[in-house]
């Protein structure tokens, strides 16, 4: 368990799922803090959906256990735990020949939730003007928002969303992102959201868990993930040979990329002295800039593999 996270709403301990001889989830220890957005990040096929299904009881772990709301999930108490959990896993389910409103009404009856919530939820997911339209005529983004409204029925303490922006256009992605970000403060809710898009998690999450080939390779705050970014100082000059000579004399390591010299992080004093030495050698510095690692770069450094998400 992450020592920084006190009283987590979800923990998993040595969670494993094996299909045949393939270990899809390999001893995963998650710790999801309350009232936060936890981004569960990894490439397609990394084990994200399988892990979420085991948390929800939709798949049985091969090994390990899941604790939710401080109680270990078992066959006996799973339904009780699920009453306080909303989820949107893979594609949302709906009755295409019925309106959005009627779909929510059926879900409210099944969940034992007051139907008065329906109009409020339709407003939250921005479907009020489309509530009487048959769902077969909804766009993909509207169906995703209807799925989110269904998951929010009863205002659960925990919301689990698996790739909620899949297939959406840029406007739909922005809408879904804004909705998710608003939930913890508005409803005192914890959101566990999976994605294979680094940029998406970067704009939503407070905490991040990164899974790769079934193994959890990072879990901490988004801020601490960014602190793993070791930026470079990049500059370009009019004399490659003279610049290399000065860098070697000063024992400053460097790399060459697209006509630029890339240096490790240096103090202002060291950069000033380096610039002065170049001036004395009549070296013209065309450009100098600080380059931070992208989240993609951080992912590659964590996995140690040239593998994109």
Low-confidence stretches: none
Instruction: Name the overall outline.
Output: elongated
Please identify, by name, the CATH architecture of the largest domain. 3-Layer(aba) Sandwich
Estimated helix fraction: 25-40%
Largest sheet, in brief, is: 6 strands, mixed
Relative strand content: 25-35%
- Rounded to an integer in angstroms, the radius of gyration calculated over CA atoms is 25 Å
The helix tally amounts to: 11
Give the helices and strands as they follow along the chain: EEEEHEEHEHHHEHEHEEHEHEEHEH
* CATH class term of the largest domain: Alpha Beta
* DSSP strand count: 15
Q: How many independent structural domains?
A: 2
Strand numbers in spatial order across the main sheet: 7-8-9-4-10-11
Q: Provide the structure class.
A: alpha/beta
Summarize the structure.
This protein is α/β, with parallel strands linked by helices and 309 residues long.
Describe this structure in words.
This protein has 309 residues and is an alpha/beta fold. Helices cover 36% and strands 26% of the residues.
What topology emerges from the helices and strands here?
Blueprint: E1 10-19, E2 22-28, E3 31-32, E4 37-41, H1 48-56, E5 63-68, E6 71-72, H2 78-82, E7 85-88, H3 100-111, H4 117-124, H5 140-152, E8 158-162, H6 170-187, E9 190-195, H7 198-204, E10 207-212, E11 215-221, H8 222-227, E12 232-237, H9 240-249, E13 255-257, E14 260-263, H10 268-280, E15 285-291, H11 295-303
Parallel strand pairs: 4-9, 4-10, 7-8, 8-9
Antiparallel strand pairs: 1-2, 1-3, 1-5, 5-6, 10-11, 12-14, 12-15, 13-14
Helix pairs in contact: 4-5
């Amino acid at each position: 368990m992450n020592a920084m996270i006190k009283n987590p709403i979800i923990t998993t301990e040595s969670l494993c799922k094996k299909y045949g001889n393939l270990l899809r989830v390999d001893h995963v220890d998650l710790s999801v803090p309350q009232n936060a957005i936890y981004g569960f990040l990894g490439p397609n096929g990394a084990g994200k959906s399988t892990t979420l299904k085991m948390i929800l009881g939709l798949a049985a772990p091969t090994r390990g256990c899941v604790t939710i709301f401080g109680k270990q999930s078992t066959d006996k108490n799973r339904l009780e735990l699920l009453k306080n959990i909303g989820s949107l896993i893979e594609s949302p389910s709906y009755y295409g020949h019925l309106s959005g409103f009627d779909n929510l009404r059926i879900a409210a009856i099944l969940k034992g939730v007051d139907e008065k919530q329906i109009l409020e939820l339709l407003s939250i997911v921005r479907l009020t003007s489309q509530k009487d339209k048959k769902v077969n005529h909804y766009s993909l983004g509207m169906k995703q928002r209807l799925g989110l409204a269904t998951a929010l029925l009863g205002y659960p303490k925990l919301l689990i969303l698996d790739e909620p922006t899949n297939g959406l256009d840029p406007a739909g992605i922005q809408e879904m992102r804004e909705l998710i970000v608003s939930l913890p403060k508005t409803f005192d809710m914890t959101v566990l959201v999976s994605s294979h898009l680094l940029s998406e998690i970067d704009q939503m999450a407070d905490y991040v868990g990164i899974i790769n080939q079934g193994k959890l390779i990072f879990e901490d705050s988004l801020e601490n993930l960014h602190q793993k970014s070791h930026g470079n100082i990049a500059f370009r000059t009019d004399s490659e040979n003279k610049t290399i000579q000065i860098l070697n004399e000063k024992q400053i390591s460097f790399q060459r990329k697209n006509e630029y010299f890339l240096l490790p992080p240096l103090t202002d004093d060291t950069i000033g002295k380096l610039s002065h030495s170049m001036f004395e050698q009549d070296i013209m510095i065309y450009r100098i800039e600080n380059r931070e690692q992208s989240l993609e770069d951080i992912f590659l450094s964590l996995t140690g593999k040239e593998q994109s998400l």
